[in-house]
Specification:
Layout lengths: L12 H15 L6 H8 L3 H13 L3 E3 L5 E3 L7 E6 L5 H17 L2 E6 L4 H13 L4 E4 L7 H10 L4 E4 L7 E4 L2 H19 L6 E6 L5 H17 L8 E5 L4 H12 L8 E5 L2 H13 L6 E6 L3 H8 L5 E6 L5 H13 L7 E3 L3 E4 H10 L1
Amino acid sequence: MPKAKIKRLYLIPILSKALDVIELLEENNAPVSLEDVYQKTSISKTSVYRILKTLVHRGYVAQSQNGLYRLVSRPRRLRFGFAVQSADMPFSMAVSQSVTAAAAASGVELLQLDNHFDPDIAVQNAAEFVAKRVDLVLEFQVEEAAAPRVANILKKADIPLVAIDVPHPNATYFGVDNFECGFEAGSLLAQHALRKWKGKTDLVLGVGFAEAGNFVQSRISGAFDGIRERLHEIPAESFVQLEGRGMRQQSKQAVSEFLRGRRKGERFLVACATDSSALGVLDAARESDRESDFAIVGQDCIPEALEEMRSGKSALIGSISHEVETYGPRLIQIGISLLRGYTVPPYNYVRHKAVTAESLSSKTETE
C-alpha cells in the first residue's frame, strides 16, 4: 500500500506561543504574574518573559507596578511624520534609514516627506503633516529662519515636535552637542599641525553653515577654541570663516575663491560643519595643487569621507562621528515617550567620537 501523505503545517512556533499567552490572558478576569503564565502554558520562562515584554511594548498588554500583566484593548497604531533634510545629503539619508528601521521595529507608521534643503518646502511639509493628522513630527530641517514657522504650524495643531540637530521653538531637541563636536575637531587639527608641521600654521579656516544658525555654527567656534588651546601663537586675524552651506559644491567654490588671493606654500587647518563641506574643501585643494598644505576635519563620518581617510594619503585627516545608527531607535523612543506622557529632557544629545585614518586602520587590523 502506498504511504499516506503527511500534511505539513507551516506554523511559526514563537508566534503560536505568543498567541497561547494572549489567549491565557484573555481567559483571566484578573491580572496574572509571569510565573502564572509560565506554569499554565508550559512555555519556557525566558520565552514567556520576552513575549510579555514585546506585547507590553506594542500595546497589547499592560504591566502594573507590582509586575502583573493584563490584556488591554489594542490602541490605534501611532503615526509619526518624518521630514528629512534632503535626499541629496548622505548624512540625511543615513538618518532616514535609521529612523525608518526603528519605526518598523516599534510598530510606528511613518509618513516621510523630503524638505529638499528648502525652508519653504519645510513649511509646506509641516502643513501636510497637520492635514494628514500625524501624532508627532520628527523634523530634520536646518534653516534656522524657517524653524519658528514650522514649529508654529505644529503647535497650533497640538502636534508634538522633535527637532533633529537644529533647535525649533517649543520642540524637544535631539542631536549632537555642536560646540563639543567642533572642539574635538579643532583638537585633531592642532595635533596634526604639531605632529606634521611643528605647529606652524598660516591660516585656520572654518567652513560653516550660517543659515543653520548659531547652534550649528558653534561647531566652527568650538573648532577654533580647540585649535587655540594647543596652538597659542596663531594670531586672531588668521582665523577666517567661510560660508559653505554644509554642501560640497558651495564649499569648494568658497575655498577656491579664497585661495586665488593667497600665495602657495601657506598651510591651512580647515574645520568644516559637515563632511560634504570637507569633501568640497578637499576638491578645491586638489584643483589648486595644494593638498599637501591642507589638513581638513569634517563632521558626520559619511562613507565617502571614511574612504578618503582610509587611503592614508588624503588631506581629510578626520571626522567626528555622530553615531547616526543611534538616531532612529532614540528618536522613536523619545516620540513614544512624549505621546505616553512621560518626562523627556528638553535637550537629548547623541554620543560622538573622533575618527581618523589611524583609528580606521587599527580597527581594520583588529577585524
